[in-house]
Amino acid sequence: MRDDSRLPTSPAFWRSPLRGPWFTSVLGLVLLVGVTVLFVTGLASYAAYNPDLSPVNDKTPDKGILGFYLFAWPTDPHWLYRLTQGVHVTLGITLVPVLLAKLWSVVPKLFALPPARSLAHALERISLLLLVGGALFEFTTGVLNIQLDYVFPGSFYPLHFYGAWVFFAAFAAHAVLKTPAAVRNLRRLRAEDEPAPAAPADETGRELVAPSPDAPTVSRRGALGFVGGGSLLLFATTAGQSFDALRGTALLAPHGGADPGGPGGFQINKTAAYAGVTAAQTREDTWQLVVTGRTGTVRLDLDRLHRLPLHTSSLPIACVEGWSTSDQRWRGVRLRDLAALVGHDGDPPDVIVESLQLHGAFRHAALRANQVADPRSLLALYVNGGPLTADHGYPARVIVPAAPGVLNTKWVARMTFGEVR
Predict the structure, then answer these.
(1) Within a 10 A sphere around the Cβ of 273, how many other Cβ atoms?
(2) Residue 359, burial from CB neighbour count under 10 angstroms (0-12, 13-18, 19+)
(3) What is the CATH topology of the domain spanning 272-417?
(4) Per residue in 274-295, pLDDT tens?
(5) pLDDT per residue over 401-410, tens digit each?
(6) Residue 418 and residue 68: Cα distance in Å, rounded?
(7) Is residue 138 within 8 Å of residue 167, measured between CB atoms?
(8) Domain boundaries in the chain?
(9) Which tens digits make up the pLDDT trace of 91-143?
(10) Could you say which of 282, 303, 324, 357 would form a disulfide bridge with 318 (CB–CB 3.0 to 4.6 Å)?
(11) Is the CB of residue 366 less than 8 Å from the CB of residue 54?
């Protein structure tokens, strides 16, 4: 007779004494809160790009009804994107051990036979596959984008966007079905020193309990402590990328480590060499800014730009990869003053900004009228008391409060006000 205990479809195959409704419920409730925050901050990040403003900003043009929530991204508070995206990336990395432990705790369910005992059970199994697959896909693509400048096949923006909706839909359905049972399990067992695996509060928890468990080598609370310690370690070695004073602690972040010195001694995403911008293109005697608007086109060389009224703004740089800087002191010409040069007095319109860079998703970017009108929005020529460096966008770059870093276009060559679409 064949020994079915050697097959993962047999309950006897799974011998760990740690699995059970209490262990799974604790992890599930942590993920319930964490994944919800990730989803909300992820949607906020997508809205920050103003994708419905212009095709050059929209990296997921076929989003359809999934873009129902989009709104005009504000400029206040000026650290808004720094906060939302810092939370999104740091929390996502911190939750990796919790997610892996949760998947490990429920893996027997993926092999349970029969595949479907009823229509309702079949729908639950399908939602579980979407949940597990979506979780692995979202976390994997997110980490690859952060750590390796995205090496996963295809475009990060649509893949991560669509994947997030599939994952969260399955997650929400699963939460509706399982959260009441998870809360009951915790309430029933919270007074016990060591939660027992037997007699779960509902039938769905029974299949998590090993019928013939091995001898325990660690308690369930000890296992949770191990998972929590892993999350804490990831947090401690990642969160510092959003704080200048702690950047040296961000050992697992690509933009960790100490900032270099000098006026331009703060983090960058892409260098001039990477963007294909050469010194010949940015020489003072050859570079010109072309500004187009209602009354025609104006060409400004560096000398004329420096003779326009200059203003100072203290603003951070915040990247979709989760890293950010503290407020840097930028000095340059207000965007609304440039709009006025080409006939847009009063309320300035939207603007398309074009860079000298040869390649990259945001070599062209659109800014909303509220971003142009903000007195802190500059075409910056200086930072922290010195001229821009080549890697920070010399001879001129855009800096806008609360905008994602990629919308703060470097190596600006042309600005077209009005008729953004």
Answers:
(1) 10
(2) exposed
(3) Sulfite Oxidase; Chain A, domain 2 (3.90.420)
(4) 899 999 999 998 999 999 999 9
(5) 999 999 999 9
(6) 25
(7) yes
(8) 4-236, 272-417
(9) 999 999 999 999 998 888 878 777 777 887 777 778 788 888 899 999 988 88
(10) 324
(11) yes
Write the pLDDT tens digit of every residue in 185-214. Answer: 777 655 454 455 444 444 445 667 877 888
For residues 251 and 237, the answer to whether their CB atoms sit within 8 Å is yes
Omega before residue 114 within 30° of 0, cis: yes
Report how far apart the first and last C-alpha atoms of the chain are (Å, whole number): 72
The Cα–Cα gap between 331 and 379 comes to 8
pLDDT of the residue at 151: 53
Contacts of 247 (CB under 8 A, 6+ apart): 240, 241, 255, 256, 257, 258, 259, 267
Query: Which residues make beta-bridge pairs with 89?
Result: none
Name the residue among 86, 98, 117 with its Cα closest to residue 322.
86
**Which residues make Cβ contacts (< 8 Å) with residue 304, sequence separation at least 6?**
none
Which string of b and e fits 380-395 if b means at least 16 CB within 10 Å?
A: bbbbeeeebbbbbbbb
Q: What pLDDT is attached to residue 153?
A: 54
What's the pLDDT band for 178 if we cut at 50, 70, 90? Answer: confident
DSSP-assigned letters across all residues of 213-267 = PPPPSS-HHHHHHHHHHHHHHHHHTTGGGG-GGGGGG-TTSTT-SPPPSSTT-S-
Q: The tokens 């000890």 sit on which residue?
A: 222
Contacts of 1 (CB under 8 A, 6+ apart): none
